[in-house]
Design a protein that fits this description.
Low-confidence stretches: 1-22
Number of helices: 11
Strand content: 15-25%
CATH architecture of the largest domain: 3-Layer(aba) Sandwich
CATH superfamily of the largest domain: Periplasmic binding protein-like II
Distance between the termini: 71 Å
CATH topology of the largest domain: D-Maltodextrin-Binding Protein, domain 2
CATH class of the largest domain: Alpha Beta
Helix content: 25-40%
């Protein structure tokens, strides 16, 4: 009997020492911010953010699902544990750090102005923009910038960037402020093949608004996941996986902006 008990104890110890099965994680993204995250023609979530997220999951050896969440509720959704991380081109800012923890940046970013071609806007002061209709996506650092810099403008905020672009294309906005790379993509790839608009002015790089780059957000208590994501990011940068995904969407390395 004693021998059997010892054998059972050893067997139990062996089972306990076996590696745990790979956990599954869920990525939250917006799904309305091409080319970073969007729904393709089949209704699947796609884009740079999505592919980077899945590459990181593969490197961490975990199964990952990707779900869409409206931007205004994306941080509350993380806090409510609807998903485990946000990969949605989110700028790392001091204000957001009060709510979530960020990984190292997975790309750099700047904001910019866009206007109709030939609009002739050159005065980017509050006085110069007084009364002009300026659009931005609500809940973003672009919206924060417009409110802070152009308080006397007619500020119009929209649930998605696509809606800002639509009103811009239809002449209902004099100007918009958005993330530079998606706007550059938009002004050169309008649906009708005829770009209505152009980027104007200098890139907006004030750290108060663009932060320290773009990071993956996790819950503040999830330090282990954050560090695993940081390690995986270094690995996909080193082995060329990141660059392969980057080159599918961009002509520059957006990790370094060169």
């Amino acid at each position: 009997m004693k021998t059997k008990l010892v054998a059972l104890a050893l067997a139990a110890g062996t089972l306990l020492s076996l590696p745990a099965m790979a956990e599954s994680l869920t990525i939250g993204t917006e799904g309305a911010y091409p080319p970073f995250n969007f729904q393709d023609t089949a209704g699947n979530l796609a884009g740079f953010d999505v592919e980077i997220g899945l590459a990181l999951c593969a490197r961490m050896k975990v199964e990952c699902a990707v779900v869409a969440q409206d931007w205004d509720g994306i941080i509350p959704g993380l806090q409510a544990k609807k998903y485990d991380m946000i990969i949605a081109s989110m700028f790392i800012t001091e204000e957001r750090k009060k709510q979530v923890s960020f990984t190292d940046p997975y790309y750099l970013a700047a904001m910019t102005h866009a206007a109709a071609k030939g609009a002739g806007i050159t005065d980017f002061t509050n006085e110069g923009m007084k009364g002009k209709a300026i659009g931005a996506q609500s809940g973003t650092t672009q919206a924060d910038y417009v409110a802070a810099v152009y308080p006397d403008a007619d500020i119009k905020l929209y649930p998605t960037q696509d809606e800002v672009n639509l009103d811009m294309a239809n002449g209902r906005l004099d100007l918009q402020v958005g993330d530079m790379i998606p706007l550059l993509d938009w002004v050169t790839k309008n649906d009708d093949g005829k770009a209505c608009c152009e980027l104007i002015g200098e890139p907006i790089t004030d750290p108060k608004f663009v932060g320290d780059g773009v990071g993956i957000a996790v819950r503040q208590e999830d330090n282990d996941l954050r560090e695993k994501l940081n390690a995986a990011l270094k690995e996909i940068r080193a082995d060329g996986t990141y660059q392969k995904i980057n080159d599918k969407y961009f002509t520059i390395d957006i990790y370094t902006m060169k």
